[in-house]
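P.,

For your records, the input lines for the assembly:
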Amino acid sequence: MTSGIERTFRKLKKENRKAFIPYIMAGDPFLERTRDIVLMFEECGADIVELGVPFTDPIADGPTIQRASERALKAGVTLKKVIAFVKELRRSTQIPIVLMTYYNPVFKYGEENFIKDAKDAGVDGVIVPDLPLDEGEYFIKQSRKADLSTIFLLAPTSTGDRIKKVVKASKGFIYYVTITGVTGAALLLDSSTETLLSEIRKYTDKPIAVGFGVSTPEEASAVAKVSDGVIVGSAIVRRFHESPDELRNYLISLREAINGLV
Amino acid sequence: MWYNNRHKKSRHRGRRGGGIIKKLPDRKGYFGSYGGRFVPETLMPALMELEEAFLRSKKDREFQKELNYLQKTYIGRPTPLYFAKRFTEHLGGAKVYLKREDLAHTGAHKINNALAQALLAKKMGKKRVIAETGAGQHGVATATGAALVGLECEIYMGTEDMQRQALNVFRMRLLGAKVTEVPVGSKTLKDAINEALRDWTTNVHTTHYVLGTVFGPHPFPVMVRDFQSIMGKETRKQILDVEGRLPDYLVACVGGGSNAIGLFYEFLNEDIKMVGVEAGGRGIETGEHAARFAGGSIGVFQGCKTYLLQDEDGNVLGTHSVSAGLDYAAIGPEHPYLKDKGRIHYTYATDDEALSAFELLSNTEGIIPALESAHALAEVVKLAPKLSQEKIIIVNLSGRGDKDVQHVARIKGIEL
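Structure tokens returned:
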């Protein structure tokens, strides 16, 4: 089966374009506001939306998303509410949506129930940063059955054996983390990034999107040149929180940069 | 027939100290259905590298020789097994022995693990170690190990714990460590672990994470158990020397659970009752506690599947204990395995019970226990009078209480 995410990447490839994947924490500071932001993402040319699910102990996230998570938790947002939110959102937009959630909320929800409810609500894919594929065999199998894309991460520390396993377990796209670090850290793009990306390409022709640390249009443009998509998270969350009026222009500048117009 | 054979085999192994229950974790780091390795992909290669280095070190004679030498000459092992005569007489029941980890260098059992991991980090060619700390004991132990072997050291500690344990913060700094405040979340041990995991993810090429308890992703639970099980091995020899027999009960407090596993592991296949004591805080009914078995459920947290205090949506709950070292939402994964098997009985002591045991031991024996260890003593206060005078209880006095004196004074409303 071809998922919405795969269709999106296929279309982009035909047009020789790269994906723009913005991130927002669901429910920061409350869910109605997140709805506006997702629609703004789409208006500004996003191809896929990554929606964060708040968790008390986000070990893969830097301070910006940690704080966003705390605000969303304060607003009472839970995994259950985020799924209901996506269902509601599907009345207004069909843009592919990827949830980024830590594993414990999924475990507590029940893997099978989560996969079913998320799929029914219109979620296209899931990233679970603290669920390595070794622990995710059942989750991957059930997600495949339900046609929910499982997106796994690769990092600069990944070597041949891990790369092989991760690309096999990934569906939709592969999430390459440019740095050893947490979300929102400073981007480090050098020749080693390109080397690793071509190493990954030896094992797969699945799309590779790059994230963690992409902040400026210049960086987005550089990342777009070597990958199939650019994920921008912390920088958007920070702008949204500190100067929301500038968000739209910022998103447009990222989109243009990824299109090669900068 | 095959069953009988297996049964015999396990009993035979049991005598030698390696029966079925002791063979875990499995290759994936599981104790039954608990444990595993739930970390971001960036850390997976580091955990595999660590597992290899740890397994190599077990066969590395030079490493073992150096570790043995430092255990004797630097930590001061073996630590004494002390018959607490006046404490026993006061309780009027079973004989109470204390395994005196409070007399180990730096004042707690934490050094057994921290020093061994610092040596291992050096062996792995790492330049820097990091650690989390709650009560400050593991932070002090890691800073000490780092100073001894010559590694850069950074300790993460929650804001609230830094206030409760100001003395240990200063000790760590004296030892040359950088102490970094963690002002997010509940500002206690769990947040310090989050921050240490983030640091490790960032600096994984140069840094080793000295996790302080039998918790986290594989191989930490088995590795820390291995480094701490020296307590049980010594205890076996010591009690046989003085009593000519093994004890009837072993009692230890359980935060992450390393002092308990470290004492119990040696005896898992013996006919000895074992009691793990969690922090009951202000009482289970108040919700302000850290009793994972009394108030928690199975979850996945900070690298492993285990018992966890969480809400129905899988978010981790805040905890409370008078003792910073037990103030933690999860428990090492081998503990729920041993609980399910019926091998260890878990209970809890409240803040008040621990405080009163803290004073009782100080008064009757001239030994000020750590507030963590005072939880184990509180259980002994309940248990010993119910047993006859022929029975023997060994309790792990996992740390000394100097660090807690100020905190206890504050609770009692005394200005120092």
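Two observations worth noting. Chain B touches chain A through 37 residues (CB under 8 Å). Chain B has 17 helices and 14 strands.

Regards
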